[in-house]
Amino acid sequence: MSRSFRAMKGTRDLLPNETIRWRQLETVIHDTMKAWSYGEIRTPVFEMTELFARSVGEESDIVSKQMYTFTDQSKNSLTLRPELTAPTMRAYIQHNLARDGALTKLYYMDTLFRQERPQAGRMRQFSQFGAEAIGSPHPEQDAEVISLICAILNKLGVINLEVVINSIGSAHSRDRYRDELVNFLTPLKNQLSETSQRRLDTNPLRILDTSDEGEQAILADAPDIMEFLDGEDLSHFEELQDHLTEFGIDFRRDKSLVRGLDYYTRTTFEITSPNVGAQSALCGGGRYDDLIAQLGGKPTPAVGFAAGIERILIAAGEHKETSLEGVSVYVVTVSDNTRSAAAKLADNLRQNGVTASFDTLRRSVKAQLREANRLSSSHAVFLGDDELNSGSVEVKELDSGLQSKVAIEEIISHFTID
RNA sequence: GUGGGGGUAGCUCAGUUGGUUAGAGCUCCAGGUUGUGGCCCUGGUGGCCGCGGGUUCAAGUCCCGUCCCUCACCCCA
Predict the structure, then answer these.
(1) Strand B: which bases are under 7 Å from protein Cβ?
(2) Using the CB atom, is residue A266 less than 7 Å from strand B?
(3) Each residue's pLDDT tens digit, A171-207
(4) Is domain A328-417 annotated with CATH 3.40.50.800?
(5) I need a surface site. Which of A10, A164, A175, A402 has the fewest CB within 10 A?
(6) How far is Cα A382 from Cα A400, in angstroms, rounded to an integer?
């Protein structure tokens, strides 16, 4: 086994028994997005590296150490997308989607790439779906986006969810807070971890979501961002909470919820599940009112989320096998003389929309029936010399074991009219 | 990048203080019905015991190295 190829670290194959669940989940997502009037967008797997550096932030972990970056033959620095909000906004600007209306609602479902050490719920190639509502600065839009992901998770049967929200303010109020936080932490600098000390210069807000207990104790006395939000930030945050309550969504406010992407303004949120292991975030999102302008578009407010499909599948747990419904026929070849007749019959059934199989291993009747059983076929059709001579075949209903004769001319209608 | 756990049949795993031809369950294949499945019975296929080196009369078992998987830290979906 050591000599054969295997899927690269952090990637995996989805085998037929798993793709069934994936399809079910994808169907729920597409249907719900449609019901909420979000249109699907699909963007290329790679983009200019600069797009992510500018939007996600040079200092973010994603850009500083997790990207699959390469140089193409034209010496362009390209990167396999590590997230999908920036590419979606790039496309929004490039195609001037704003002309279609004051509000543009987009969703995506695709694979992303981050070069991290894999663990439960974290892969190097992974899948996300997400929604972006572009054009509305108002809190009801934030609430709609949050209720959208909650609706999808509910439909998927994911339970034990926790919705956590916070506001990190708009750019100017956040700047004032950042200065204050730096003032507070600088005298305590030598009590901070190495990475936090570095972040004090590069991205002080990120220190807030440390998991180090000593640092958490220090931060307990740190200034609260709520005290620095301006009036509009505050009312936005309060209205968001009112709307969530109206939607019947339970949530918790966590002032340490900062998130690792630089483009957020005001609302940030996360939905977590305890059943995934350490990687408990199923969904993360927030408002990013400045991003489109940063990427060269007309200043346009927007809010969205991204959710991890692998994590959702883990959180949803095992689902009972949904057995195949409807008719499926196994044509049993009883004698060597009837091989081509059996193949032809199966083909004829398929042409008429009936799921059908026949034996290509030249196995015994017993083995063919075992195969029919393994395939969960609903019926077996026996085709041997007697049947060819008499012009009628034996049709056996596999659940009940009942068997009857059906004229060959009527076999198609026998299964299609059922 | 840093830790913990683990690599024996397709899958899940057992394998004693080193000791003959390395085991079980499930799966798969075949037979038990000269043309009839599931359940049951019988038999069979399938192993560089992750890889390399060392110790020993003898290594799946002990030692060293190495690769891979996995969980966790960091961070995130």
Answers:
(1) 1-3, 10, 28-33, 35-38, 48, 50-51, 68-77
(2) no
(3) 888 888 888 888 888 888 888 877 788 788 777 888 8
(4) yes
(5) A402
(6) 16
